[in-house]
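Example with several molecule types.
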Amino acid sequence: MSLGEALPMLDAEERVSGRINYTLNIEAPAMLVGKILRSPVPHARILRVDPSRAQKLAGVGAVLTRADFGSHTGYSGKYGRIFRDQTVVALDKVRFVGDPVAAVAACDEDTALEALSLIDIDYEEIPPVFDETEALTPAAPLVHDPRPEQQPMFSKMIEDLAGGSNLCSHFKLRRGDVEEGFSQADFVFQDTFRSPAVQHVPLEPHVTVAHYAREKLTIWTCTQMPHAIRAQMAELLNLPLARVRVIVETLGGGFGSKGSLRLEPITAFLALKAQSPVKIVLTREEEFVTVCKHPATIRIKTGVMKDGTLVARQVSANFNTGAYSDIGPVVARNGGSAMSGPYRIPHVRIDSCAVWTNIVPAGALRGFGVPQAVWAYESQMDMIAERLGLDPLEFRRKNLLRDRDLFATGEELSDIHFDELLDRAAASIDWSYDDARWLNRTEPKQKTVRRGKGLAMVIKATITPSTSAAALKLNEDGSLNVLTSSVECGQGAKTVLAQIAADAMHMPVRRISVSEPDTDLTPYDQQTSSSRTTYSMGTAIREAASDLKRHILDCAAENLEVSVSDLIIEDSRVMVRGTPQRSLSYGEITRLSNQGNLFGHGAFTTRGGLDLQTGQGIGSVHWHQGAIGCEVEVDIETGKIKILRLSPCVFAGRVVNPRLCELQLEGCAIFGLGQALFEEMAYGEHGQLLNANLSDYNIPSFADVPLKLDASALEHAGSEELHGIGETLLPPVMAAIGNALYNAAGVRIQELPLSAERVLRELSRANMTRRE
Amino acid sequence: MKQIIKLKVNGSMEEKAVHTHHTLLEVLRSEYKLFGAREGCGIGMCGACTVLLDGQPMSSCILLAALAEGKEITTIEGLSDPGKLHPIQQAFIDHNAFQCSYCTPGFILSAKSLLAENPAPTVEQIRTYLAGNLCRCGSYYKIQEAVLDAAARLRGEKQNPQLP
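Resulting structure tokens for the full complex:
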């Protein structure tokens, strides 16, 4: 009985004693320190790069510049998950403040920094564009010209477009006839919502150590995607996959930031050039200019009947992917495909675009486009409820998706639990209809601190299709190695996967060891993201266990001289049905096999995909579902919001480890709380980041989290389906708080964050209007 | 420029030649290979590099190593021997008070200092004292429980009555 058990993390003792290994601790003999020179301007042509003074400095092993790339060197230096729009160092142009221009490897940090100061660069500035809406106007300067080449493997997922524009990608969803829907509707409401850039701030920064020897690259790196890193590095270095080895230690947090290529290219080319191992550790300031959440402007038009029945929705969303597309087109697609929310809407038209600009590149961040989407549609749900004079709870309930309904993607839904989730969220804050400000008939109190409650819901895809593979190695003492490339980010992947293996193999967790990802040794996994590890890798491990048990049973049958059908497996042993004294342990069977050890292999691929022109198809192998209730207190003299109660609940199918699940749910809520209340990357007028440090950019501390947080997981009796829960509850936090703010103080804010300054400004504006 | 300094780290006194501008964190990591203190922000805001200086929590990322001379420096590695955890560490395990655990040594050392000053803190006091340690994974509720429980254990009680 290891499934459902609240085991502590298997490596807990190393974690509390400070002895767990992070990539940050990796050292190699004769290792050099790498440092990166970054652009001080947002958009410029590079006229001259002169590294000669830096190269002459004692202690410098290599200086990497654009001269190391191009046809004469055999290395293009161009990469990118979807578009090859990024370069190891800038070749012709820089595109944002912080863009890497050159790099140095030297004997120590001081020497490397001095060498950076000796590299001479001449820039010719060109007009920049920062805003996603402005970037799409015809007069906007082009961030990429010509349009970068698209990677063929994404051609089925992302439509390639014509050049001559900053439009990077355009996801379309077409269902029903949205114009017809609007003409049937009693009311049509159009509102616009904005989310700013925010940073992941994993406390462990990005770190990469690269070593190139005998035409083989070995990299230790903080990544959530070891195999994707291997493939892209092999392409950049013209090496076969087998000659790139990616090793990943436990991460000090990732939250999506550690996915695409980051430091790996620059570190690897420095190591190649210096003929020595090189290590780069980003400073916190550099973290902020490496990747972020997409700023997004989302316009929603919703048609509704007088009784609250939703009939049509049109969405136009622009996700600002910054200077480089990274995984932005897939973020825009994922956010876009979920913009009808957990509601039945017969006519839907969605256009969700990624747009290039001259700010920090945006990539995956916990929730993957859905936080921006939910902020928009769940805020609008309450605004519509008010305009129609409806209870926002009943308005939602009237339109909720249920089993056998068709989603906006046209797929039939099953295992849908929104009714129960909404009930739980409402009950957790004792919601009653007069909690809606517009339904409350009592006289408003003149107190300066006011209370309000809010609700919000979420539907979210997990990346589909996707593939995970696992191998199990049974040793001669009967212990088991689980070989997997799933990355431990603190979510407890290793523990949960050990529990799944223990359950499938009928053996205790303490006899199991789960590997670190090492692409030389561990089987393929697409990525540790999208809340997919427990489900996808868990299923691959179950498949591998079936395979291994077949070998075990065959070997046992031969040695016990019975047929396989007469055997049963129990407690790490195989026994003859009815005569348990005739049995063999896993260890005995392995020894009798004369193979040294026994292997089981398993792979799991989910199927699906959406049509490029209509967004119809299978958007997700199963849909992640959640709801949040919250109560806030707003001080109308300071604008400060205090969260009193926050109750996130998620559908989890079957929970593998209740303690780790709870940590993930609480973590999601707190991560969302930061984005709701204060997190925002602030840019100056020249595109320079103004708050790239943890003094000016705050993340939630003990001082910010509510006294009470009631996270709960809804389990489905008898379900064996494991639902990922690592992200689902982040997206609805912002709208739940925004809705509660409105009910408390009567100000509707459509741009995040709901900072005290912004709340106060809106309150005084509302007061002025009232007086007039 | 290097300077010879005498540091007392986890009970043992040693002379080290260190760059005058290097921080205690750099010296602990590069000279002592003590990896439990980690840089998170580099400006003393996140608490991931916390060590105890004469029992007081200190951000080692903004303290020049030379200024730690003459003080008792305790890192997470000095809190317990392998296989025999400090009651605070054990409480962190029992309450699963971490996820990625990058911040954990800092929280545990700050908690140790808190409990030395105040053996029976309230929830409010714990939250205020530990507000300078950041956990991006958001394990705050479990940390709060672990510290309450550790306080009870250190007082010789079995179970803290304030725990759920």
